[in-house]
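[Discussion] Sanity-checking designs against the backbone

I'm trying to build intuition for which residues belong where. Below is a C-alpha coordinate string of 314 positions. I'd appreciate it if someone posts a full sequence so I can compare it with mine line by line.
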Protein backbone atom coordinates (compact mmCIF):
# COMPACT_ATOMS: atom_id res chain seq x y z
CA UNK A 1 0.00 0.00 0.00
CA UNK A 2 1.51 3.35 -1.08
CA UNK A 3 1.74 5.96 1.64
CA UNK A 4 1.62 9.57 0.54
CA UNK A 5 4.31 11.88 1.96
CA UNK A 6 3.61 15.06 -0.04
CA UNK A 7 0.01 16.19 -0.51
CA UNK A 8 -0.58 19.21 -2.71
CA UNK A 9 -4.06 20.69 -2.96
CA UNK A 10 -5.09 23.42 -5.40
CA UNK A 11 -1.69 25.07 -5.08
CA UNK A 12 -1.24 28.30 -7.05
CA UNK A 13 1.63 30.75 -7.44
CA UNK A 14 1.18 34.00 -9.33
CA UNK A 15 3.85 36.50 -10.27
CA UNK A 16 1.77 39.57 -11.20
CA UNK A 17 -0.05 38.44 -14.35
CA UNK A 18 1.87 35.14 -14.71
CA UNK A 19 0.30 32.04 -13.18
CA UNK A 20 3.42 29.92 -12.71
CA UNK A 21 1.64 27.12 -10.81
CA UNK A 22 -2.05 26.85 -11.50
CA UNK A 23 -4.40 25.20 -9.01
CA UNK A 24 -2.23 22.10 -8.87
CA UNK A 25 -3.27 18.98 -6.97
CA UNK A 26 -0.85 16.08 -6.62
CA UNK A 27 0.14 13.31 -4.25
CA UNK A 28 3.69 12.00 -4.00
CA UNK A 29 4.30 8.67 -2.32
CA UNK A 30 6.87 7.88 0.29
CA UNK A 31 10.05 6.41 -1.13
CA UNK A 32 9.43 7.11 -4.83
CA UNK A 33 11.39 9.16 -7.34
CA UNK A 34 8.68 11.35 -8.82
CA UNK A 35 9.80 12.97 -12.07
CA UNK A 36 8.42 16.33 -13.13
CA UNK A 37 8.80 16.95 -16.86
CA UNK A 38 7.65 19.98 -18.77
CA UNK A 39 8.76 22.67 -21.21
CA UNK A 40 10.80 25.66 -20.04
CA UNK A 41 8.60 27.90 -17.96
CA UNK A 42 6.10 25.10 -17.13
CA UNK A 43 6.35 25.87 -13.40
CA UNK A 44 8.52 22.97 -12.16
CA UNK A 45 11.03 25.09 -10.26
CA UNK A 46 8.30 27.34 -8.83
CA UNK A 47 6.50 24.27 -7.47
CA UNK A 48 9.73 23.07 -5.83
CA UNK A 49 10.34 26.53 -4.35
CA UNK A 50 6.90 26.50 -2.73
CA UNK A 51 7.29 22.97 -1.34
CA UNK A 52 10.74 23.91 -0.05
CA UNK A 53 9.15 26.88 1.80
CA UNK A 54 11.12 29.44 -0.23
CA UNK A 55 8.10 30.93 -2.06
CA UNK A 56 4.82 31.50 -0.26
CA UNK A 57 1.90 30.10 -2.27
CA UNK A 58 -0.65 32.58 -3.60
CA UNK A 59 -3.40 30.11 -2.68
CA UNK A 60 -3.94 26.42 -1.95
CA UNK A 61 -2.12 24.16 0.47
CA UNK A 62 0.59 21.53 0.61
CA UNK A 63 1.62 19.18 3.38
CA UNK A 64 4.92 17.41 3.71
CA UNK A 65 4.83 14.45 6.09
CA UNK A 66 1.60 16.03 7.42
CA UNK A 67 3.26 19.44 8.09
CA UNK A 68 1.72 22.47 6.38
CA UNK A 69 4.35 24.21 4.22
CA UNK A 70 3.24 27.67 5.38
CA UNK A 71 2.06 27.14 8.96
CA UNK A 72 4.74 24.61 9.93
CA UNK A 73 7.58 25.62 7.64
CA UNK A 74 10.28 25.06 10.29
CA UNK A 75 9.18 21.42 10.68
CA UNK A 76 9.14 21.02 6.89
CA UNK A 77 12.68 22.41 6.60
CA UNK A 78 13.96 19.76 9.05
CA UNK A 79 12.89 17.03 6.62
CA UNK A 80 13.87 18.43 3.25
CA UNK A 81 16.90 19.22 1.16
CA UNK A 82 17.10 21.11 -2.12
CA UNK A 83 19.52 20.81 -5.01
CA UNK A 84 18.86 23.99 -6.97
CA UNK A 85 18.70 24.31 -10.76
CA UNK A 86 21.10 27.25 -10.53
CA UNK A 87 23.85 26.43 -8.02
CA UNK A 88 23.47 28.46 -4.82
CA UNK A 89 26.95 28.58 -3.35
CA UNK A 90 28.97 30.95 -1.24
CA UNK A 91 31.13 32.03 -4.16
CA UNK A 92 34.19 32.98 -2.11
CA UNK A 93 34.57 29.51 -0.56
CA UNK A 94 36.12 26.37 -2.06
CA UNK A 95 34.16 23.13 -2.39
CA UNK A 96 35.54 21.63 0.77
CA UNK A 97 34.48 24.65 2.80
CA UNK A 98 31.05 24.76 1.11
CA UNK A 99 30.32 21.07 1.65
CA UNK A 100 31.63 21.08 5.20
CA UNK A 101 29.51 24.10 6.10
CA UNK A 102 26.42 22.57 4.49
CA UNK A 103 26.94 19.24 6.29
CA UNK A 104 27.46 21.10 9.58
CA UNK A 105 24.20 23.05 9.37
CA UNK A 106 22.46 19.78 8.51
CA UNK A 107 23.66 18.50 11.90
CA UNK A 108 26.21 15.89 10.82
CA UNK A 109 29.03 15.05 13.25
CA UNK A 110 32.61 15.93 12.27
CA UNK A 111 33.44 12.29 11.64
CA UNK A 112 30.33 11.70 9.52
CA UNK A 113 30.95 14.95 7.58
CA UNK A 114 34.48 13.93 6.69
CA UNK A 115 33.40 10.45 5.65
CA UNK A 116 30.51 11.57 3.43
CA UNK A 117 32.40 14.48 1.86
CA UNK A 118 35.37 12.27 1.00
CA UNK A 119 33.06 9.70 -0.60
CA UNK A 120 31.11 12.21 -2.72
CA UNK A 121 34.17 14.25 -3.74
CA UNK A 122 35.71 11.06 -5.09
CA UNK A 123 32.50 9.91 -6.79
CA UNK A 124 31.90 13.27 -8.50
CA UNK A 125 35.58 13.81 -9.28
CA UNK A 126 35.73 17.24 -7.74
CA UNK A 127 39.51 17.21 -7.31
CA UNK A 128 40.11 19.54 -10.27
CA UNK A 129 38.33 22.25 -8.33
CA UNK A 130 40.53 21.84 -5.23
CA UNK A 131 41.30 25.05 -3.38
CA UNK A 132 39.59 27.33 -5.91
CA UNK A 133 36.85 29.70 -4.81
CA UNK A 134 33.50 28.72 -6.33
CA UNK A 135 33.32 31.82 -8.53
CA UNK A 136 36.38 30.57 -10.46
CA UNK A 137 34.84 27.19 -11.31
CA UNK A 138 33.30 25.96 -14.57
CA UNK A 139 29.51 25.59 -14.91
CA UNK A 140 29.78 21.81 -14.53
CA UNK A 141 32.02 22.05 -11.44
CA UNK A 142 29.56 24.43 -9.76
CA UNK A 143 26.68 22.10 -10.57
CA UNK A 144 28.56 19.13 -9.12
CA UNK A 145 28.99 20.98 -5.80
CA UNK A 146 25.28 21.85 -5.76
CA UNK A 147 24.32 18.17 -6.25
CA UNK A 148 27.02 17.02 -3.80
CA UNK A 149 25.31 19.08 -1.05
CA UNK A 150 22.11 17.02 -1.17
CA UNK A 151 23.92 13.71 -1.62
CA UNK A 152 25.89 14.45 1.56
CA UNK A 153 22.82 15.66 3.44
CA UNK A 154 20.69 12.62 2.47
CA UNK A 155 17.39 14.29 3.50
CA UNK A 156 14.17 12.38 4.07
CA UNK A 157 12.64 14.35 1.19
CA UNK A 158 14.91 15.58 -1.59
CA UNK A 159 13.93 18.23 -4.15
CA UNK A 160 16.35 17.87 -7.01
CA UNK A 161 16.10 20.38 -9.87
CA UNK A 162 17.88 19.45 -13.13
CA UNK A 163 20.71 17.56 -11.39
CA UNK A 164 22.77 16.74 -14.46
CA UNK A 165 22.38 19.82 -16.64
CA UNK A 166 25.88 20.73 -17.97
CA UNK A 167 27.43 17.47 -16.76
CA UNK A 168 29.36 14.95 -18.83
CA UNK A 169 27.97 11.43 -19.42
CA UNK A 170 30.25 9.75 -16.83
CA UNK A 171 29.21 12.08 -14.03
CA UNK A 172 25.56 11.90 -15.17
CA UNK A 173 25.59 8.14 -14.75
CA UNK A 174 27.28 8.42 -11.33
CA UNK A 175 24.71 10.96 -10.13
CA UNK A 176 21.83 8.79 -11.38
CA UNK A 177 23.25 5.82 -9.43
CA UNK A 178 23.61 7.95 -6.30
CA UNK A 179 20.03 9.28 -6.57
CA UNK A 180 18.74 5.72 -6.98
CA UNK A 181 20.73 4.73 -3.88
CA UNK A 182 19.24 7.67 -1.98
CA UNK A 183 15.75 6.39 -2.80
CA UNK A 184 16.69 2.80 -1.99
CA UNK A 185 17.88 3.93 1.42
CA UNK A 186 14.50 5.49 2.21
CA UNK A 187 14.37 9.03 0.81
CA UNK A 188 11.59 10.38 -1.36
CA UNK A 189 12.78 12.36 -4.37
CA UNK A 190 10.95 15.01 -6.39
CA UNK A 191 13.01 15.43 -9.53
CA UNK A 192 12.52 18.20 -12.09
CA UNK A 193 14.18 17.42 -15.38
CA UNK A 194 14.19 18.21 -19.08
CA UNK A 195 16.19 15.09 -19.88
CA UNK A 196 13.87 12.28 -20.91
CA UNK A 197 16.66 9.74 -20.51
CA UNK A 198 17.16 10.89 -16.92
CA UNK A 199 13.45 10.43 -16.15
CA UNK A 200 13.51 7.07 -17.91
CA UNK A 201 16.40 5.82 -15.77
CA UNK A 202 15.39 7.31 -12.42
CA UNK A 203 11.60 6.95 -12.50
CA UNK A 204 11.39 3.58 -14.26
CA UNK A 205 9.76 1.90 -11.27
CA UNK A 206 8.01 5.00 -9.97
CA UNK A 207 6.02 7.83 -11.59
CA UNK A 208 6.41 10.90 -13.73
CA UNK A 209 4.12 13.84 -14.45
CA UNK A 210 4.02 16.03 -17.52
CA UNK A 211 3.56 19.64 -16.44
CA UNK A 212 2.63 22.54 -18.68
CA UNK A 213 1.53 26.09 -18.01
CA UNK A 214 1.40 25.44 -14.27
CA UNK A 215 -0.78 22.34 -14.50
CA UNK A 216 -0.20 18.59 -14.42
CA UNK A 217 -1.36 17.33 -17.80
CA UNK A 218 -0.76 13.62 -17.22
CA UNK A 219 0.89 11.41 -14.61
CA UNK A 220 1.68 7.74 -14.14
CA UNK A 221 4.46 5.23 -14.53
CA UNK A 222 6.60 5.76 -17.66
CA UNK A 223 5.24 2.48 -19.05
CA UNK A 224 1.60 3.48 -18.42
CA UNK A 225 2.14 6.89 -20.06
CA UNK A 226 3.70 5.25 -23.11
CA UNK A 227 0.65 3.00 -23.37
CA UNK A 228 -1.58 6.08 -23.64
CA UNK A 229 -0.13 6.97 -27.05
CA UNK A 230 -2.44 5.49 -29.69
CA UNK A 231 -0.50 3.35 -32.16
CA UNK A 232 2.71 4.23 -30.34
CA UNK A 233 4.25 0.74 -30.49
CA UNK A 234 5.95 -0.26 -33.72
CA UNK A 235 6.68 -3.71 -35.13
CA UNK A 236 9.20 -3.68 -37.93
CA UNK A 237 9.26 -6.67 -40.30
CA UNK A 238 12.00 -7.23 -42.86
CA UNK A 239 11.31 -9.70 -45.67
CA UNK A 240 12.08 -10.10 -49.38
CA UNK A 241 8.62 -11.51 -50.21
CA UNK A 242 6.15 -9.17 -48.51
CA UNK A 243 2.75 -9.47 -50.21
CA UNK A 244 0.21 -6.60 -50.32
CA UNK A 245 -2.64 -8.97 -49.26
CA UNK A 246 -0.96 -9.48 -45.90
CA UNK A 247 -1.94 -5.94 -45.00
CA UNK A 248 -5.65 -6.80 -45.34
CA UNK A 249 -5.24 -9.87 -43.18
CA UNK A 250 -3.43 -7.99 -40.42
CA UNK A 251 -5.89 -5.09 -40.21
CA UNK A 252 -8.36 -7.55 -38.65
CA UNK A 253 -6.27 -7.36 -35.47
CA UNK A 254 -7.89 -4.57 -33.44
CA UNK A 255 -4.62 -3.40 -31.82
CA UNK A 256 -3.24 -2.37 -35.22
CA UNK A 257 -3.68 1.31 -36.08
CA UNK A 258 -1.68 1.62 -39.31
CA UNK A 259 0.50 -0.47 -41.66
CA UNK A 260 3.10 0.83 -44.10
CA UNK A 261 4.85 -1.44 -46.62
CA UNK A 262 7.91 -0.16 -48.42
CA UNK A 263 10.06 -2.54 -50.51
CA UNK A 264 11.41 -5.14 -48.09
CA UNK A 265 10.12 -3.48 -44.96
CA UNK A 266 6.75 -3.41 -43.24
CA UNK A 267 6.04 -1.06 -40.33
CA UNK A 268 3.04 -1.91 -38.15
CA UNK A 269 1.85 0.84 -35.76
CA UNK A 270 -0.18 -0.60 -32.94
CA UNK A 271 -1.20 -0.57 -29.28
CA UNK A 272 0.12 -3.11 -26.78
CA UNK A 273 2.35 -4.88 -29.29
CA UNK A 274 3.33 -7.51 -26.73
CA UNK A 275 -0.25 -8.87 -26.67
CA UNK A 276 -0.42 -9.62 -30.41
CA UNK A 277 3.18 -10.02 -31.60
CA UNK A 278 3.00 -13.81 -31.70
CA UNK A 279 -0.32 -13.73 -33.64
CA UNK A 280 1.20 -11.35 -36.20
CA UNK A 281 4.25 -13.55 -36.64
CA UNK A 282 2.05 -16.62 -37.06
CA UNK A 283 -0.01 -14.92 -39.81
CA UNK A 284 3.16 -13.91 -41.65
CA UNK A 285 4.54 -17.44 -41.53
CA UNK A 286 1.18 -18.95 -42.60
CA UNK A 287 1.37 -16.76 -45.73
CA UNK A 288 4.82 -18.07 -46.54
CA UNK A 289 6.57 -14.81 -45.77
CA UNK A 290 10.22 -15.35 -44.97
CA UNK A 291 10.74 -13.13 -41.95
CA UNK A 292 14.36 -11.93 -41.81
CA UNK A 293 13.80 -9.44 -39.03
CA UNK A 294 10.93 -8.97 -36.56
CA UNK A 295 11.53 -6.15 -34.12
CA UNK A 296 9.23 -4.51 -31.57
CA UNK A 297 9.81 -1.04 -30.20
CA UNK A 298 7.77 1.00 -27.78
CA UNK A 299 7.34 4.80 -27.77
CA UNK A 300 9.97 6.78 -25.93
CA UNK A 301 9.34 9.35 -23.22
CA UNK A 302 10.11 11.96 -25.90
CA UNK A 303 7.02 10.74 -27.75
CA UNK A 304 5.00 11.05 -24.53
CA UNK A 305 6.38 14.54 -23.90
CA UNK A 306 5.54 15.76 -27.40
CA UNK A 307 2.10 14.17 -27.30
CA UNK A 308 1.10 16.00 -24.12
CA UNK A 309 2.86 19.32 -24.62
CA UNK A 310 2.83 20.11 -28.35
CA UNK A 311 -0.62 21.64 -28.52
CA UNK A 312 0.43 24.21 -25.96
CA UNK A 313 3.60 25.18 -27.79
CA UNK A 314 2.10 26.66 -30.93
N1 LIG B 1 10.66 35.14 -9.33
C1 LIG B 1 9.88 35.21 -10.40
N2 LIG B 1 9.29 36.37 -10.77
C2 LIG B 1 8.48 36.44 -11.84
N3 LIG B 1 8.20 35.39 -12.64
C3 LIG B 1 8.75 34.21 -12.33
C4 LIG B 1 9.63 34.05 -11.21
N4 LIG B 1 10.03 32.76 -11.16
C5 LIG B 1 9.45 32.14 -12.20
N5 LIG B 1 8.69 33.00 -12.92
C6 LIG B 1 7.87 32.67 -14.09
O1 LIG B 1 7.08 31.54 -13.76
C7 LIG B 1 6.99 30.63 -14.86
C8 LIG B 1 7.47 29.27 -14.43
O2 LIG B 1 8.86 29.31 -14.22
P1 LIG B 1 9.68 28.08 -13.63
O3 LIG B 1 11.07 28.54 -13.37
O4 LIG B 1 8.93 27.53 -12.48
O5 LIG B 1 9.63 27.06 -14.85
P2 LIG B 1 10.38 25.67 -15.08
O6 LIG B 1 9.34 24.66 -15.44
O7 LIG B 1 11.24 25.36 -13.91
O8 LIG B 1 11.25 25.98 -16.36
P3 LIG B 1 12.74 25.46 -16.81
O9 LIG B 1 12.54 24.14 -17.50
O10 LIG B 1 13.18 26.51 -17.76
O11 LIG B 1 13.59 25.38 -15.60
C9 LIG B 1 7.79 31.29 -15.99
O12 LIG B 1 6.90 31.97 -16.83
C10 LIG B 1 8.72 32.25 -15.27
O13 LIG B 1 9.04 33.34 -16.09
MG1 LIG C 1 13.25 25.10 -13.69
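Best answer:
Here's mine. Compare freely.
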Amino acid sequence: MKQSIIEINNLTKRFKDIVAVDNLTLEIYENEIFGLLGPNGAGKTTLIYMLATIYRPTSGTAHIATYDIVEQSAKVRELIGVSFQEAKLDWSLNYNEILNWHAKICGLSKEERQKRIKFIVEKLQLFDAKGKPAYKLSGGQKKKIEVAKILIQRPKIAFIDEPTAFLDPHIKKTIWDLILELRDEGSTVLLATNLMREAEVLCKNDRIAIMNQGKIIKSGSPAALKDTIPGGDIIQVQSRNLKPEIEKELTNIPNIVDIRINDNQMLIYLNKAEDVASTILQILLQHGISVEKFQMSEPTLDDVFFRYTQKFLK
